[in-house]
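Assess this one:

_____
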Amino acid sequence: MQRIRLAPDYEISRVIRGGWQLASGHGSVKSDDPVADMVAFADAGITTFDCADIYTGVEETIGRFREHYGKARGADALTRIRVHTKFVPDLDILPRIRKADVERIIDQSLRRLKLDRLDLVQFHWWDYDAPLWLETAVWLNELRLAGKINKVSATNFDTDHMLAMIEAGVPLTSMQVQYSLLDSRPAKRMVEAATAHGVALFCYGTVAGGFLGDRWLGQEEPDDFENRSLIKYKLIIDDLGGWDFFQSLLKTLRAVADRHGVDIATIASAAMLPRQAVAAVIVGARNRDHLPSNLAISSVALTAQDLADIDAVLSQAKELDDDVYTLERDRHGRHGSIMKYNLNKGAA
């Protein structure tokens, strides 16, 4: 597994195990032993885990994993484990949020993860019209200076707001963005800005909730979905050109995958790792069934012909509107209306 150093004191695996699929309410397929699954990933070299304060039960599960892993593998092995959580204040609290609210939620994550200092916190803000977003970013940085957070980062901000945080003195280590073969919005402006300011990009959605996989090759267009993740990415497919375009892409990816002896999902994620500013890809996993293919992501070396074949299909797609996460911020639009905005209520 490839590793990358984001700062002199901070190194991660280039494949990050996502945690959304482990959250309560995310489909019926669950792991029988999520802690054992995390141990298998860590032992294999995928030592970085993504979660969020709003992923119900996931921070607690990773806390149990960390405690177990330290006892089973020793303190030195535990130092290689990195946990990236998120700070996602509820939509309703945004107009009146205070630093005490921020600290309360950060303290909650510390307790759940059994950490004295959070490795990396990714800040998300639902509504730019709620005016305290920049103050909140500054408060997170103050908690970093106070020793409760190691690295302050963000997720789903557009380029202008990312730059505003940097200009305000918030040292963003990374930005987690939806960036995939299906969603090239970060390439419009953010890639260049992130490169200029040393902000690493973490890509989620590289397999589009599972759509970029062999399961969907040759299948009829679906109209029923197991979870909101599939609904979310089906909307992206529709915007790009629809199901026929998507099937053409899958056929091309299958041909590339055949040349490398892997599956479509591996190629879809591997294609993102060489891109400018990309430090890592986040791959969701409910259990360890796909661990071998997840490990293969960083070892697949796509050829110039592979990339040309993929680009030829993508050149036929329509362009998604606007900057990073702009479509999703319209709460009354097709993309934003499927979101849940108040998931931290009752956090203590």
Observations:
- The chain has a mean pLDDT of 92.
- The chain is about 40% helix and 15% strand.
- The CA atoms of residues 63 and 113 lie 4 Å apart.
- The longest strand covers residues 149-155.
